[in-house]
Amino acid sequence: MSSKRSIFVGIDLGTTNSAAAVFDGERVQLIRSAQGSGLLTPSVVRIDARGKVTVGERARRLVDQDPDNVKSEFKRMMGSQQTIAFPAAGLVRKPEELAAEVLRSIREDVKAQTGILPETAVIGVPALFELPQTAATSEAARLAGFERVEIIQEPVASGLGAGFRAAEDVGSFLVYDLGGGTFDVSLLEAREGLLRVVGHDGDNFLGGRDFDAALVDHFIELIRAQSGVTLQRDNPAHAHAFRRLRVAAEDAKIELSRSTEADVFIADIGLQGQSVALSASVERATFESLVAPLIERTITICERLLQSHGLVGAGSVGNVVLVGGPTSIPALRARVAQALGAPFGEGLDAMTLVAEGAAYYAASSGLDARGSGAKEAGAGAPVWLQFPAMSSDLNPFVVGKLVEASSRERISHVVISRTDGGWASAREVVDPDGTFAIMTNLVARRPNTLRIEGYAPNGDGPLLLAPSEFVIVHGVTLGDPPLARSVGVALANNGVRVFFDRGSPLPMRRTFAVRTVETLSPADPEGSLRIPVVQGEFPYAHLCRLVGAIEIKASSLKSPLPVDSLIEVTIELDRGGRLAASGCIPSTGDVFGHVAQLITGKVVPSELAPRIEELRTRLRDTRTKAFKHKAQKAITVLSSAEAMLDDCAIATQRAQGGDQDAGERAQRLLIDADALIAEGEGEIAWPDLDERARSGLTRWAGWIAEYGTAIERQALEETTRAMEKASLARNAREVRHHLATIAHLGNAAAMRSEGAWESELDYQISQITKSRDPKAAAKLVAEGQRAIQVRDKAALEAAVRGLWELAPGTSDKTRGLGHWSGVT
Amino acid sequence: MNPRERVVDNPFFVLGVARDAARPDIERAAQRLLAELSIGRQSALAYSTPLGPAQRTEDKVRAAAAELRDPAKRLVHEAWATLAAEPTPAPGFEPISWPLALRLIGGKAEG
After folding, report:
1. CA A285, CA B110: separation in Å to the nearest integer?
2. Is B32 in Cβ contact with A435 (below 8 Å)?
3. B94 to chain A, minimum CA–CA distance in Å?
4. Which of A434, A647, A687, A776 has its CB surrounded by the most CB atoms within 10 Å?
5. In chain B, what percentage of residues exceed pLDDT 70?
6. Backbone phi and psi for residue A470, each to the nearest 5 degrees, phi listed first
7. Distance between CA atoms of A43 and A55, rounded to whole angstroms?
8. Alpha-carbon distance A544 to A458, whole Å?
9. Could you give the CA distance from residue A571 to residue A220 in angstroms, rounded to a whole number?
């Protein structure tokens, strides 16, 4: 490969193994590890007593000898505040620093094979990675020396890899990606060469590692039976034995994919003070029964995804692409094939497809790994060209600009032609600003070399331009990368103001206005206003993940910011999913820029157990009610929540034994279980809600019929129709939303009735002690009463509106749930 | 979005494509405009709408292409593009009222 040609690098930074691929516009080349571990570089890092760093296969081989200083699976901790200790050297590293070591090693391997040390690359991340994890991945790449990286979701990369290889449009297909630590399933659709992500689902904490853990549990039982020793995960003295068992489990798992039986023998599992051996023969059938529940979990997630897109039953997708090491397990393949009823994509390597797809994506985004310094200088008038390096369109535009003013006088027309002689454009006119745009004509599914030449106003030519040739590859491409999970701002009432919906194409930027819920005075040194940024699909902030916050310190204000002040919040997400947020106070013009810090709370294992108990109590209460109401759907949902809490308890135990990753998983499971219980509660409350919706509708419709405007009546009709639909679908969230709209309309109409403002003032007087500012409220009440005396309707309205704004705020408990948001 | 924004930011106007443009034509228009904007091509910096010319930005182009990829959203934008285009805008063109808009796109409206 010569450096004259663009190269595009894709990297799969995996939990257990990493891989890289290089695409030159024509062929894709997989990068071999310099350490002889084939196409994969184990994501393992060792730091020895002298601080020397070893990466990959060499580090992995030392795991048994030096377990304390060889670390793996740090990907599962990316974006958290967890750190990883290397006791021999007395060093502490962040997960992204270790990931950077792996990336640096891969970068060197690319150089060894292509002669080019890549400056840019595309890195795959799991689809359900949240913003902090994505940002940590970008940071790792920066630490590894990459000038620029873009992030692609792994299933999208796999889809791109599979789609690029397919000769025809494959229609809809499912990417089933079971990695070492995460499970992702994505529904994709390839039409007219353009790949679209229809939907994602998955579990950030389900992977090959859990398959190993199931086998380890089996070993623990065997050891108990054979020697009467009970190993405990939360006992630090047993940690070494557990590591040995895990390595043995990993080997046995791989062995069982090839043969029907695996022998496991450990002469001494490494318990202090006593010698305990493990000798066992594991049959494939035994292993299959151990991991069957895990496989079922993946199937449930696949079915949930298909159902949510109206696809039901076997055969609803055309093709299934398997990605990841554990997908070589025969029982898994059989079960997936049976459940989804679709053939597997052929000739695709489950281990390297992500890297391959990422390399194609680098090409379609024009991310030449030679970096910015590689612009070739040549003879001729310099021209700045913009074109897609990879295009799914057979007729993409090439846009360009003659850089030097002098060449704009010499060159009035431009022609682009294919070097195979099959096509040439007409002589296109160059605009007075030196720019031109020409539609090209490509040969399908091939790299197309195009030549560009200029012509003088008198027709002389061709005149040389620099560059004179460039390549566009025709193939499957992806539009702008979609956002995996919705992003919004948490509100003081524990609601969420969604800024970007899931699936929105990146990059994106949006501004919304919010209002403060308390007064902020510059005199208060402790005072601050917090606007939490959350990510997730739930309407309640506490069920979404806190990914950052805008913090406005009271001390930074020039003048007090009264309650109910307007703040304009802008959130920006770039293509790599990096978040920037800023707040602006329009009344003063103060801007609080780029204050978002990506934060993921550090998990405190001792705090997990009480929360599990709390949820268990809530679960029991809800279940009693569910049985009483015979709410079958609620009972089903609650039993899933219970299974989740059981898993959570196990993970918590592991976390207390020092397994940080288990702590992260427990945290996630708690949130998910909470959401499920809430869903169950919603199911039980359904008859109530439905009843409330009906009676509310009757009441408000009356007011609207009598006092509403035409528009309000129209809106009522539309909303009622939507609410009926939601009610039929038993969608509690939608019904509540529509009911609120109807109440709002009804309220507006009701306030037009005779005496409405007067009685509202009476009501507000009764609430005055609960007001956020009783002194100001008393003043408004007096103004209102005076207005009634002088029959000044406008003044009365103004007073009542003022009182509304001072109405009691949200309780501390709710605000705590809303991540202490200071806005609404 | 108010009716004025519905018209001025209408994806069909932003991308300068016809209301019946096929999906590949829309993608191509977006690709061309993004390339033109990145080199600062004069002729791409503004687009015309029935309410007068508006400034074109990369953000707007990307958002417009994304809107038109969604068939449901595209229908709404087609309706607004039709509304704005058909009664030839007289000087002092008034933004369309909601009930009128709903009636024109086939909803039942009164008043």
Report:
1. 70
2. no
3. 18
4. A434
5. 74
6. -155, 165
7. 8
8. 66
9. 50
What is the band of A600 on the pLDDT scale with cuts at 50, 70, 90?
A: low
Query: Does the beta carbon of A509 lie under 8 angstroms from any beta carbon of chain B?
Result: yes
Closest to A417 in 3D by CA, of A368, A451, A446: A451
Radius of gyration of chain A (CA): 31
What is the distance of C-alpha A742 from the center of its chain? Answer: 34
- Alpha carbons A414 and A425: distance in angstroms, whole number: 9
Contact between chains at A437 and B36 (C-beta distance less than 8 A): yes
A397 contact B CB<8A: yes
In this complex, is the C-beta atom of A401 within 8 Å of any C-beta atom belonging to chain B?
A: yes
Q: Is A511 an interface residue toward B (CB < 8 Å)? A: no
The Cα A342–Cα A547 span in angstroms is 38
Q: Tell me the per-residue pLDDT of A474-489, one tens digit each, with 9 for 90 and over.
A: 877 766 666 767 888 9
The CB-side HSE value for A501 (13 A sphere, CA atoms) comes to 6
User: Is A431 close to B41, i.e. CB distance below 8 A?
Assistant: yes
**Are B111 and A714 a contacting pair at CB < 8 A?**
yes
Q: Are strands A91-93 and A44-47 parallel, antiparallel or unpaired?
A: unpaired
Q: Among A550, A565, A547, A553, which residue's Cα sits nearest to residue A521? A: A553
Element (H, E) at A471: strand A469-474
The answer to whether A799 and A784 are in contact (CB under 8 A) is: yes
Predicted complex: ipTM over 0.85: no
Q: A732-776 pLDDT, tens per residue?
A: 777 877 887 788 788 878 888 888 888 888 888 887 777 777 888
Half-sphere exposure of A457 (CA within 13 A, CB side): 6
User: What is the spatial distance between Cα B26 and Cα B28, in angstroms, rounded to a whole number?
Assistant: 5
